Amino acid sequence: MDPAGLTGRPCALTASLQLIGDRWALLAIREVMLGNHRFRQIARNTGAPTDRLSARLKDLVAAGVLERRPLPDESRHEGYHLTEAGRDLTGVVRELLRWGDRWAVTSQPMRIMHHEHEFEPRTACAACGETVDQSELRTEVIAPGWDAAGPVA
């Protein structure tokens, strides 16, 4: 998707939200990440109306986030599986869960484990290997005609 064709600031976040920003889309992705590949499992665990879920799953397949593959031991049924693009969303979903634990719920309903302890991610720079503090980051606007404040007159 060409970010220049989007409404407002040209930004990959806008393009990303067009693909996965719908509530049912992200919940369906969560379910597939948890190993639930059948439509009925995804519908039950998301609470999504089946017509909306069907449309979202179709959109996610068309966008290359999910793919349909035969389920093991079943020649007639296909399940939903993450593509490389879908697997790249794991960190995003994990961070949304972490944020939700802190700001959206009163008690943690689920947690991500690493060996026998709760997983606590740290961000490191791939170029230099340093652990990154949020205060050290800055955004460089490279879209023509835009700066951090908005469109350049």
Lay out the secondary structure.
Elements: H1 12-20, H2 23-33, H3 39-46, H4 50-62, E1 66-70, E2 78-82, H5 84-87, H6 90-103, E3 113-114, E4 117-118, E5 146-147, E6 150-151
Protein name: Transcriptional regulator
Organism: Streptomyces mangrovisoli
Domain HTH hxlR-type: 11-108
Task: Please tell me about this protein's structure.
Helix content is 39%, strand content 12%. With 153 residues, it is α+β, with helices and mostly antiparallel strands. It has a domain at 3-106: Winged helix-like DNA-binding domain superfamily/Winged helix DNA-binding domain (Arc Repressor Mutant, subunit A, Orthogonal Bundle), CATH 1.10.10.10. The strands form 3 sheets. Strands 1-2 form a two-stranded antiparallel ribbon. A two-stranded antiparallel ribbon has the order 3-4. α2 (23-33) packs across α3. The longest helix is centred in the middle third of the chain and has 14 residues, at 90-103. It starts with 11 loop residues before the first helix and ends with a strand. The model has no long low-confidence stretch (mean pLDDT 91).
Estimate the global geometry from the Cα principal axes: globular
What helical percentage do the residues reach?
25-40%
What is the CATH homology-level superfamily of the domain at 3-106?
Winged helix-like DNA-binding domain superfamily/Winged helix DNA-binding domain
Strand order of the largest sheet: 1-2
How far do the termini sit from each other? Answer: 26 Å
> What's the total number of strands?
6
Helix/strand/pairing class, anyone? alpha+beta
Major β-sheet annotation: 2 strands, antiparallel
Radius of gyration: 19 Å
Query: What is the helix/strand order?
Result: HHHHEEHHEEEE
> Within the CATH hierarchy, at the fold level, what is the topology of the domain at 3-106?
Arc Repressor Mutant, subunit A
Name of the top-level CATH class of the domain at 3-106 = Mainly Alpha
Low-confidence segments, given as residue ranges, are none
**Average pLDDT over all residues:** 91
Q: Which second-level CATH architecture of the domain at 3-106 applies?
A: Orthogonal Bundle
Contiguous helical run count: 6
What percent of residues are in strands? Answer: 5-15%
Pfam families: HxlR
GO molecular function: DNA binding
Protein name: Transcriptional regulator
Keywords: DNA-binding, Transcription, Transcription regulation
